[in-house]
Amino acid sequence: MTCFIVMEIIIISILVTLYHFIYRIIIGEITSKIDTNKPINYNSILLHEFKFEKPLYDFLNVKKWKDKMITAKPYKFNLYKRSLTEILKSMMIAEKVHIICFFLLYLPILLIIPYGSPLAFIITSFLASMIDLTCVIIQRYNIPRILLLLKIQKQ
Questions:
Q1: Residue 1 pLDDT exceeds 60
Q2: What is the mean pLDDT of residues 8-17?
């Protein structure tokens, strides 16, 4: 009986993790297709830095670890090959994708009702959401810096 429960948790964890990867790719591609050709709305909430953000990023020491995170499409953030406006657009899209994914990550928890194994669903959803939250933090940290560079560039 115990061996069956362990196998069930492992299988559910693998399937939920696979779900997280597949839907991230789908959400990323759809959002990119929709938003890539839209003009940047400089009044967007995505470009507004809130008062709590800078102290939070200092506390989390974002500057030290942000460059160590894996980027799905590093060419979209390359300062040598892309304009600051293109990079800003890529950052806004990436942030939007990770925000959407953060919330969708908790959908598998609804599967606890028919399948049981709450631990597998809750742990995989929480851990995956922390990855997306980290990506949102990195974009939120970098966007004001790109806006400042754009402002300097226009002068």
A1: no
A2: 80
